[in-house]
Amino acid sequence: MFGFGKRNQEQLTTPAQQDDKPRRKFTGLGRHLARMFDAGQSDRLTESWGTMPLTADDIVRRNQRVIVARSREQAANNDYAKAYLRMCRQNIVGQRGVQLQAQSRDPSGKLDQLANDAIEAAWHAWGKRQNCDVTGQLSWRSLQSICTTSAAKDGEFMVRIITGSDAGEWGVALQVLDPQRCPVDFDQEKLPSGKFVRHGIEFNRYGKPLAYYFTTTDAVDADYSYGGRHYVRVPAKQIIHGFLPDIVGQKRGLPWMATGLWRAKMLEGFEKAALVNARVSAAKGGFFEWEEGYGPEQDEDEELYMDADPGSFQELPAGVRFREWNPQYPSGEFAPFHKSMLRGFASGWGVAYNNLANDLEGVNFSSIRQGKLDERDNWKDLQEWLIEQLIEPVFEAWLPRQLLAGRIKVNGKPLKAERLDKYRNVSWQPRRWEWIDPRADMDAAERSVQNLIDSPSQVIRNQGRDPQTVWRELARDIEAMKAAGIPDEFISTAMGIKMGGAGNGPASTEQNAGD
């Protein structure tokens, strides 16, 4: 209920007054509702703010090429943009790339370790640059990095799956394409069967991609010509198109750096102006002034110069005064303003300011720990995006062809292609990060295992390792130490296991984990 003041109640007591001013009763309510959404006001302060929502197609058509061009320019010239792209590669892909962990099982539910090892070995061999890239220049890890960089800088990546003899020995290879070759301004409506072309992509009536059109300068090899341009039509099943949609119905991606580009460009100009001003200020320049009655005649072209050596002073001619020109900027407010701008587009890019700006001044352990944890959640989300958009489609195209060709073998015998569903069961392990406080985090992981919150295998996965691989390595190490004649008590100490019966607390847990 909305209450009115005593004065308003008295004014509304008589019908005559109500008839004379029938809208007065709702004046307070109307003002209240008008103030509920300031963003809905249209006045002189918001006249440049749009009032008509645009569709995803309109936004992409009007802005995509301009934003991509500016994003590429900033990536080439702006240190912070370059740092952001490097952070994307390092944290989404990492130094080893996303690792395959085959999980095929026997009918009894036990892992088929021999088959899993064979699949992982074949995947690793195909991932070498002479096999996975149709040009023979990019390894599988490098290709993941390029696609990640393209998504951050251009908003999307496009990869073509090449099969057959053109793909080389393994029958499957990848070709990285520049997304700008698929013109965002190429649209066609009302094609047969409800099909349409939007942003260079052909869709069916339900919006499923059917084909991609890429520009070519060779009219002979072109499959399609329209508006004076020649296109190669590639079926959609051969194209892996990855991007992060922001709006329902979006068909092309926008650069991840889009929200911070304007601020980054202005800050770049601000830094250049401040740097030039500081250099000029350090030169300590000035002007000469002639007193009245002194100086050359107006028709004389000779000008007066003075070379000033460090630590020396020169006597000026009679009637000459020196006026100093000493700009003081950048001054004390430069650093706070600069830091504020960096924080702005670091937030838009989803990274911590301290990492983007390489600024650890005044950072304590608690704040940097919380900042890293928040940032890592964003990286994990993007890692899953890369797996869904790129890695899984490539594996689904690769595995059947290798089984049919008999290239995946166990003890010299190829795996059976009819067991494709069994061998398709895999998991992907992206990179993980070192513990921020190893001792505290180790204690927390140990307590999680004790309290049945986490399993030992999950703790290993959190470090980016495969539990089966770690356990086999431990078993091999123990066998090697036994073969070398090392006593069991020393082996137990090296493994972190206390022998001699069940203990209490962490000691018993370590023994159980070791067993």
Task: Note the overall shape.
Answer: globular
* N-C termini distance: 68 Å
User: How are the strands ordered across the major sheet?
Assistant: 4-5-6-8-7
Integer average pLDDT: 82
What structural class results from the helix and strand content? alpha+beta
Radius of gyration: 34 Å
Number of helices: 18
- Strand segment count: 14
Q: How would you sum up the major sheet?
A: 5 strands, antiparallel
- Estimate the strand proportion: 5-15%
Helix content bin: 40-55%
Low-confidence stretches: 1-18, 499-515
Pfam family, one: Phage_portal_2
Protein name: Phage portal protein
Region (Disordered): 1-25
InterPro entries: Phage_lambda_portal
Keyphrases for this structure?
515 residues, 13% strand, 3-stranded antiparallel β-sheet, alpha+beta, 46% helix, 14 strands, globular, 5-stranded antiparallel β-sheet, disordered C terminus, disordered N terminus
Q: Can you walk me through this structure?
A:
The chain is an alpha+beta fold and 515 residues long. The protein contains 18 helices and 14 strands. The chain has a five-stranded antiparallel beta sheet, with no helix packed on it. Strands 3-2-9 form a three-stranded antiparallel beta sheet. β5 and β6 form a beta hairpin. The protein is globular, with a radius of gyration of 34 Å. The protein starts with 5 loop residues before the first helix and ends with a helix. Mean pLDDT is 82; it is low at 1-18 and 499-515.
